[in-house]
Amino acid sequence: MNSTGACIITDRITEELSVLIGNLNPSSVTWLTDDNTRNHCLPTLTGNLPGNNIISVPAGEENKNLEVASRIWKGMTDLQIDRKGLLVVLGGGVLGDMGGFCAATYKRGIDFVLIPTTLLAQVDASVGGKLGIDFESFKNHIGVFQNPVATLIDSCFLKTLPFAELRSGFAEIIKHCIISDQSMFSRISQFDLTAQPLSELISHSVAFKKEVVTKDPKESGLRKILNFGHTIGHGIESLSLNSGHRLLHGEAIAIGMITESWIACQRQMLSAAELSDIVGFILRIYGKQSIDFSTDKLIQVISQDKKNKGNRILMALPDRIGSCQWDIAVTPEEITASIGYYFNA
Ligand SMILES: NC(=O)c1ccc[n+]([C@@H]2O[C@H](COP(=O)([O-])OP(=O)(O)OC[C@H]3O[C@@H](n4cnc5c(N)ncnc54)[C@H](O)[C@@H]3O)[C@@H](O)[C@H]2O)c1
Ligand SMILES: [Zn+2]
Description:
The protein is α/β, with parallel strands linked by helices. It is 48% helix and 18% strand. It has 14 helices and ten strands. The protein has helices at residues 13-24, 35-40, 42-46, 66-78, 93-105, 119-125, 163-180, 182-188, 198-215, 230-241, 249-266, 272-286, 295-303, 332-344, and strands spanning 6-9, 29-34, 53-57, 86-91, 111-116, 130-135, 138-145, 150-153, 313-320, 323-330. It has a six-stranded parallel sheet with strand order 1-8-5-4-2-3, with helices on both faces. A two-stranded antiparallel sheet has the order 6-7. Strand 9 (313-320) and strand 10 form a beta hairpin. Helix 6 runs parallel beside helix 7 (163-180). It is globular. It binds nicotinamide-adenine-dinucleotide and zinc ion. Residues 124, 172, 230, 249, 253 line the site of zinc ion.
């Protein structure tokens, strides 16, 4: 994989992009948007910038698939983009993963720039070089590691983001604080979501994630701490997709962080006071979600998590607020009990 790629956090996105394009001097500039970012985000940028080529695809995780990837490759082919062309991907994590994947594979790879427009993509998906699409029922099943030439982050795009999406992305910020920074956690836990210093938190999260993925780009050790909240959270998220109450990623991860923190507390890794701080804050932001599937079903799904080894369920668990261990084997009984705790908390 190439280096981590420049990550520029700015409040002057048009100027930054224009300088970047000037330096790269590509043979063409093509924008990749989805329906929403084409309407809400593209007008902010295109006024003074080159590139009238626009490829737009339908929004949503259900479109992060081979068929839509083919449409992107076809769009690039029809526009006769050569190997010196530049693809500017303007969107959330779905488009960043899929558009980056299409660019990284088109003619064996052309340059691409990521401009993440959701909070989740700004603090998580756009850092670390993981690209790909879903395949059949498997999430992120086909993909590559490849970094963009640059990632440009401007919080101005968050103004048009639906509140539920903003709140979903905020779960990754909470996660980053719990696993890496006790004092930042105690700061953010004093505010509601609307009062959070988002620009500062975006920089904090990006710096932290960059540090982790630079040390462990292929997830052989340390990078696994980023999975805190995600073993149980992913299981809940995927079951919720087929239930009457579909949860956004961050809403499921919020439950995952509560239940996994409870397990960490049972194992005397977190103190009861730390657990109470984590749970109190997360419930204040997300409330309590209803789950309409059995814990047996949840255990079945979690057991298939691709991060497990053999038949052991492995988790990343904090050993205090601000620090995290990984590859900790957890039993189905502990998971079941943690869900019971969530409903009674
Ligand atoms: N590569 C990684 O390391 C990594 C990490 C975490 C998540 N992901 C991936 O990210 C994806 C989820 O990303 P997401 O939560 O950003 O979802 P998303 O890309 O589907 O965006 C959510 C919704 O917001 C809309 N939207 C985007 N920006 C907007 C704006 N500024 N104003 C109004 N609407 C806007 C989108 O069109 C979409 O409808 C998943 O596919 C996940 O696998 C990847
Ligand atoms: Zn996540």
